Amino acid sequence: MRKVLKFGGSSMANAQQYAKVKSIVEYDESRRVVVVSAAGKRYQEDHKITDLLYLCHAHLKYGVSCDAVFEMIARRYLDIERELGLKTNLEREFAALRDKMDEGITEDELVSRGEYFSARLMADYLGFTFVDAAEWLLFNLDGSVDKETSYARLRALAQDKKIVTPGFYGAMVDGSIKTFSRGGSDITGALAAAALDADVYENWTDVSGILMADPRIVEDPEPIARVTYAELRELSYLGAQVLHEDTIFPVAERNIPLNIRNTNDPAHPGTIIMESFPNDEGEDDHRFITGIAGKKDYVILSIYKKGFSSQVGAQRRILEVVEEHKLSVEYTPNGIDTVSLVIPGKQFEKRRHSLIAALSERIEPDRIDITENIAVVAAVGRKMAFRPGISGKIFAALGEHGINIRMISQGPQEVNIIVGVDGKDFANTVRVLYNSFVK
Ligand code: ASP
């Protein structure tokens, strides 16, 4: 059994957090591969090391001294080294880095050092082997990851050893350092898990999993115990803050379970993400809804024309006009002689006049109605499929709270039920659904 663990910035912020990481890793013999972020914030007003490194590079670029910022960065790691009683000797490494900065260093290389120093310290602290990401994670010239080579290299380097490797960066063929976009250590972790065919990819952060609803709207929402990739896509599309698609891909491809965990509450099981759950029973089994998410600022464009339903190609012609205006249509809840299109408000606004003019001319509708400021809210859940009465319950709950439903959409896979409501009812809709289905 081999588990790959990735620890985010808040788990690496100071010596106390390092100690938590150590006890988590040592708790389970199969936790053999550790990927780390740079040190994050210790408290709200604190700075992330990666931000400071970017700032440092900006100073270099404009020929301004970055000594003060560099000192803050070095101090943070040297403090951790000292407080944990380690003999990594980062002092020497910082001096070498300072020299390199004077000679000229690329932005990618400089900002990658946060992860590098984190990993060096963590490897010493855990007594694991340090494996530099530049030695295994290889980028193609187009910026994508050369998975085949990277996987083979990591397998050869790791073998059966217990290792720590830095997140966020790798190397180009010429050996120069290249980073992912911000937050990229999650991708490194997923790649390592895929390369080593891990039994699970544990992503350790500072929340106990993905929440069922936005905590800015619902007070203290519960974390989701288990979610499929399909559900996650639905939730993240509608604005839920979950892992980036690139992150998930390497592990999803190999159906490796991804477990989101909380370093500050290691006993909490967190959220497990998988392609499917064969025995879909668990504590949350009584729940049909996995999560609730939504977005504001949509426009519903309704086009009426007598006899539309019997005209072949009417929808296609409308969609053609919309496509020419480069608008994305998110839902199409239609009536007999009506075609309705749900379009993101900002996009619509830019092309409103030419779109209406083109539709009037080419479709010759009897009427076009524009309903603005619509919010779309989705109740997402694989367990809703083919279970009668769920939509009824949703509509009844909203009705009881005086929320007027302006649009309804449900795909045949029944992974979600989507309602369009007035923008002013957005937060209340999320709360009513949460309270009716989760509490
Ligand atoms: N340290 C990098 C960042 O702040 C990468 C990461 O933490 O995932 O974006």
Q: Label the overall shape.
A: elongated
* End-to-end distance: 37 Å
The computed structural class is alpha/beta
Number of strands: 15
Describe the model.
This protein is of the alpha/beta class and 439 residues long. Helices cover 39% and strands 20% of the residues. The protein is built from 13 helices and 15 strands. The strands form 3 sheets. An 8-stranded mixed beta sheet has the order 3-4-2-1-7-9-10-8, with helices on both faces. The chain has a 5-stranded antiparallel beta sheet with strand order 12-11-13-15-14. The chain has a two-stranded antiparallel sheet with strand order 5-6. Strand 1, helix 1 and strand 2 (31-36) form a beta-alpha-beta unit. It is elongated. It starts with a strand and ends with a helix. The mean pLDDT is 93. The structure holds aspartic acid (ASP). Aspartic acid is lined by residues 9, 37-38, 48, 50, 114, 167-168, 182-186. Aspartic acid (ASP) binds at residues 9, 37-38, 48, 50, 114, 167-168, 182-186.
